[in-house]
Amino acid sequence: MSPGPAVALLAALAAAALLADHALSVAALATLLLIVALRAPVARRWPYLFGTLMTAASVFVLTPFVASIGSHPLWTGPVVPVLGALDVTREELAEGLFQALRLAAVGLAFACYALLVDHDRLVGAAGWARRSTLAVALATRLVPTLERDAAGLREALRGRGVDLAPARLLSPLLAGSLERGLNLAEAMEARGYGRPGRTRAPTAAWTARDRGALALAPVVVVVGALWL
Amino acid sequence: MALAVVDRLRFSYPRADRPAVDGMSLELREGEHVAVLGASGSGKSTLLRALAGLVPHFHGGVFEGRVVVGGLDTRRTRPAELAGTVASVFQDPEDQVVMTRVENEIAFGLENVGTPPQDIEARVGEALAAVDAEHLVGRLVAELSGGELQRVALAAALALRPRLLLLDEPTSQLDPDAAEAFFDLVERLECAVVVSEQRPARPLAHCDRVLFMDGGRLVLDAARDEAVEWLRANRPLYLAHGPDVVCRLSGVGFAYGDRRVLDDVSLELRRGEVVALTGPNGSGKTTVAKIAAGLLDPSAGVVERARAAYLSQDPGRYVVAERADEEVALAADLERARAALGRLGLEQHGGRHPRDLSSGERERLALAAVLVTEPELLVLDEPTRGVDPERKAELARLLRSEAPRRATLVVTHDLPWAAEVADRVLSLDASAVREGAHA
Which of A163, A189, A200, A203 is the best mutation test for B, with the most CBs of B within 10 A? Predict the structure, then answer.
């Protein structure tokens, strides 16, 4: 599928998950997106899936403690200043699950975009928004790069017998990313990026499937808003 | 008419306390291949960036003098506008990749310089053919090896049909075979090429002219044969097959705080030889080894060395990865790591956890982890401590088999083993190095 329609469809599925009112509908959308994301190679997909699922799990666990809804307490805890009573109700659990599923669906849609969409063709097809699309494509690549940098840093520190808290790694990781960004920007400028009169390599024409996907995208949003 | 003119160029990066290039003038002619040599920080990369217009446009700083390339003054022409006249390949291919597929990566520059769309595919194919990489079409850039990726970077530069190609340490991430293949490709190019390298053997073999930089100044600009003579007289370590001295310590002194450990120590290590350094505890053997390997800076004297690797006493500290091949690949790519494991008879253990290996295997793994960097000088500190006789004999065989590739310095107390493995045994006592073992 061409990248434009693929992105439109993924965005529509994420929007439908945000607009839907029923946890089962959102769960179905998240499952669908998970199945699609699992088509990516294992080595590439795990940081995205792990990050998405961990974030969703955190939302599910924390929501009951910060929300105050429902009248069917399952557990009553102490009263904490500012937060109030640390009780857990059935409604809070349901709300936590609902929000976690929504987050998972959006995260998985992003994972599908990052892992399965041909970013080169997307940049090529972007037309007037090429600069922004290229920036997004390069930023997307930052996720696996950061993961690889963090692992390398940890290994290097372990090899030197140094044990640092993960938070201490953020600064060198950020510095490394900035350095990479500068090197890339320099290489891009040396290759003529930003020069007026740019052309575009010919791209494949859309197929009937592409046009169908693009037409389906708004339908998915409407269905999500009205019936899910 | 010269293709490029550098006229009294003096450039300082922002907040730098000294100029990176200081009063340099030279001319480059169409089609000539020039090697730029010099130590790290000597200004080689800055010169290349000045020729590409990246200095001063991209980096800022204080720029004096003039650089003209293809009739374009780089002060008034942005690097993007020089693209096509000039093309660059940088040190780390991973940091210059923009697109995800090989053919799109090469087309990126062509699109930027306004190549007619109907010509782009043919130009991509032509560039890939020029670097013998047609088979990479359709591959994801992220899945390429270092050598393949650098070929793609070269193809992306060549696709622009530059008159001047700038290569900034282009083989620093490549294994020796890939580096040789890369320079074979470069030699066939008809455009002018300026290549900066810290490992000079290959560019010296492929260039017409040599520039040598020191502290931002051009101290040599000569045809290759004349340059080789100059290097032999003034910078012998830059010649791969010159006097073959890989490391030279001259009048070296060192102190830990107030405690003086070394005073006026001199020694030479030559390619192909294994040298054992013996001496009583506290004589400074490990200090000499670390200075030779570049881990310590001497407080006095001069050290000249080629690329060095140091294997410390405890191989266990090299165990940080989950698989033996990944462990070795920490300093290289997986392909080279597996080759290194193979050389040490560990090819079948690549998938095992390093800690599941026997002690002897783990020692070989540690050796592989440093040998994979292809050092010109290998320094081992007490490699036989706590090792049984069979494993010591095996280690001696390994070091002998690897010896022709480099100089090897072994710090040891084990005199019988030193006699078995070493071509020369040096004794360090009272800061003096003598031939022959210390009794």
Answer: A189
Cβ distance B295 to B240 under 8 Å? no
Return the residue of B nearest to A120 by Cα: B99
Task: Flag if B112 and A195 touch (Cβ within 8 Å).
Answer: yes
Q: Are the C-beta atoms of residues B220 and B227 closer than 8 Å to each other?
A: yes
What would the pLDDT profile of B351-385 be if each residue is shown by its tens digit?
A: 888 877 776 777 788 888 888 888 889 998 888 87
Q: What is the pTM of this model?
A: 0.63
**Cα–Cα distance for residue pair A92/A98, rounded to 1 Å:** 10
- Per-residue pLDDT reduced to its tens digit, B289-342: 889 988 888 888 888 888 888 887 665 555 667 788 888 887 777 888 888 888
Residue type, B14: P
ipTM above 0.90, yes or no: no
- Residue A58 Cα distances to A50, A55, A66, A208, B425, angstroms: 12, 5, 12, 41, 63
Measured over the CA atoms of residue B169, residue B170, residue B176 and residue B180, the dihedral's sign is negative
Neighbours of B258 (CB within 10 A): 5
The encoded tokens of residue B423 equal 């071509």
Which of A77-91 are b and which e, b meaning 16 or more Cβ less than 10 Å from the residue's Cβ? eeeeeeeeeebbbeb
Q: Where are the domains of chain A?
A: 3-196+205-226
Name, in order, each residue with C-beta under 8 angstroms of B419's C-beta and a sequence gap of 6 or more: B276, B425, B437
Domains of chain B: 4-238 (3.40.50.300), 245-435 (3.40.50.300)
- pLDDT value for B427: 87
Q: How many CB pairs under 8 A join A and B?
A: 112
Residue of A119, A155, A199 with shortest CB distance to B117: A199
